[in-house]
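A note from the maintainers: we've had questions about how concatenated examples are separated. There is no special marker in the raw files; a new sequence line simply starts the next protein. For clarity in this README we add a label.
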Amino acid sequence: MTNKNKQLEKEQKAHFAYAKSGNLPISSKQCIEICRNLRYKNTGWAKRYLEEVIVLKRAVPFRRFLMDMGHKPGMSSGRFPQKAAKEVLSLIKSVEANAQAKGLNTSTLKISKIVANKASIPLTGGRHRTGTKRANLEIEVKEMPALKKRETKQQKEKTTKKSVKKKETTEEKKEGKKTNEAKENKETVSKVTETKIPTENKVVPENQVGENKE
């Protein structure tokens, strides 16, 4: 690999965060169905979804492992895998903590990879030994750029009206300033003309002339 490719990989990894959990006592089949529903979703949405599953408000649709499974309201076949949902929820919280420690923005995290695999099955049960359920979980999160809020038609109309009003007010202020400046100029001109008129050229009425002679 060239140095440029290595630098690109480092820059890309700087926007990712990872978390793993292994040998969890949960069903791998249920985890696979949950992961399929959470892949490429936002972490905030995923947490709300799993919390609703745990409280039995929202069922997880099953598409692959649905043998002898009943229907749920609003979907064909589904279940409430509470135990698996709790483990997946704790994994999402841990990956968010890792991202925060790395300096990423936790409000714009997107699940780019979430995988559930079957783990090694220990034999338990004493004399009649049976295999127990175990699963491995892995999650990868990517920091996405913050999206700009789209303005609705009403907001656009409000902004255009505000801009038009501002323009009108600015134009009115300019016109008022011009009128005030014109008035001030006229007043100054009249004052200057009054001061420039000589006293000799002033016309004295005849009555005043006679009185002065007497």
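[label: protein 2]
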Amino acid sequence: MRFEDVKPQMRRAKVLLIGEAGSGKTHAALTFPNPAVIDAEGSVDWFADRFKFKAVATKSYSDVRDLIRSVREGHVPCETVVIDSLTTIYNGLINAASAQRDDLRPLEGLLQGTYAHLAVTGFWRTRQEVTVGADSEAAAQRFAYWHAHTRDAIETLTNSGSLTSLGKQFVIQMRQSLSS
């Protein structure tokens, strides 16, 4: 056994910014170091005169997955990845998984997105419980919105017929978590 020099490690933070439209989520995200933006809302160019960043416009989960892979492999020189907005990508996955669409369903993305939205639902549930008055009422409305969308996504996953046994167990746990 011997001592070795310790070298700095790349640390990555995963940050979710939640707020009303126009509250400054994109502005805040662009203050992070050297951002590359996946622009699903088609509006990030509004900030081009105030920030230096790279951007690509897409609403496709498959594109987002491939872009993230490119970043991880070092093909995109950036220090921050911004997805603006995750909700737009998530809603695209819900639409792709619905019976009204004939296209291929990216079920793994829907599963991951539903899990993320479960956390957002929990945030608004807690916010509703710890605030009073108008703040509590506003939180209750947002909780109801996220709860309904997350519940619908869980049902889509349950009825997909494409989950493995572990996937089915995971969805059952998400349903129980949403109900508690």
